[in-house]
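Title: Prediction job returns without error message
Component: structure pipeline
Severity: low
Priority: P3
Assignee: unassigned

Description:
Job completed but the reporter wants confirmation the result is attached to the right record. Sequence as submitted:
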Amino acid sequence: MLGTPSQTRSSLRQICDLAIVLRASPGKIDYEARRKLNFTQLLLLEHWRTPTDSIGEPLGLERRLMNAERYAFMRVTATSPAQLPQRLRFRKSAPDAADYSAFLLTMSAELKDGIDTYLSAWLARFETAAQTRPSPATWAPPRSRPSGAGLGRVLEDIDVDTRNSLRLGGKASVRRMAAVFDRSARHVRWAISEYPLSTGRMT
């Protein structure tokens, strides 16, 4: 384990707390079953037109669609880039990881909502076809601490105005923002994904 002995003990208590919560109230998503769905049909080009057209954003090049597919897959399966389908994996010989980070940094709140709406409809179709229980696109357990263990920082605890000015000023990289906010790169990446900037367009 990483950290001091007290941090390690707190982390272990948090894991136990989460296990207690999930045992009392199981999650709404069967991720094991979901990861067996036919993801070759996820966010095809004709599907991608729906969220982009509805908010007036361009389709972009093939690379933008691929990054949207990566985002959609990881969002509904709760997996990491290492578990992406082979065709979507980040290549070491190309700047795929950097391109994906740029996609997240520039994704609008409207596009995120559009993708989530699409994913809900996609799951309703493919989970029904696979005879698995219908479930929401995403789900997270409530924040609680039955044992009194310290909780990690919430994603929205970084300064929103500073975050937005960095992103709008074109000076935002995940690494730079992590340094500015004194947070891990993972925390910043998840916060950006969860709370993207709005364009002000109606959807």
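Comment from assignee: result matches the submitted record. The two ends are 45 Å apart (CA to CA).
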